[in-house]
């Protein structure tokens, strides 16, 4: 047997290989096929002189894979991305590398795909036009809105999009209104929103949850540390809280960890996303739904595997 040289897909090629809707399907398909996120391999963080390595290995079905990212906080000042890296896809039987992908592009696609794989059922149960609020004006604001549009399709229209930023700025989102954090306009938008996406680097809650609708869906993807949060404990106490994996959430997700510490939530309250996708847990239409994501390795692998199938690079090392 001889090994083939794995092909490299840059950002443009990665995006061309899979649509936002197909990425959502890939995540849901992995869960419906029986994969248990609790069996995923742990992420590894390694400190470097000017940043850190983030290693994310996983194995699902016929594929294994690892995402190797570097996080360099000073890079934006040099005109470079803060996060860079590669995804390496392997054949699970021979462990031969079959495909290389731009790691940052894969992350950009994966993050909103997981958000809406978890919440699509809740978002599609009403036909009413949807008011959307997005906290954060970075790339994930754009990525989440594009994936949301793909998930809603013709079933539900978007009535308004309000982007809440630290300072008023122009964002690359058509027809979006940008307001400053803490402003009256931001509070008014939160009060009517059917969907709130939090994609910030904040370490404290980004909005007061006392005014949110009883049927609001909230997606929180920004914080990845046990001492950082975007949501307050009052919201977590009111809501059905969906997580990728319970043990991962109580270890890594500050929104969950701090709400538990405050007595607003218990680990038994947490709903695994697999139960939502498989339909074994029904979400309550009269309570807020919170999806708290910390990002897991299996999610990248699910989407990388779908890209490999679409590009004809499925385990072709021989």
TrEMBL record:
Transmembrane segments: none annotated. One of its GO terms (cellular component) is cytoplasm. InterPro entries: NAD(P)-bd_dom_sf, ODC_Mu_crystall, ODC_N. It comes from the Bacteria. This is Ornithine cyclodeaminase. It comes from Rhodoglobus vestalii.
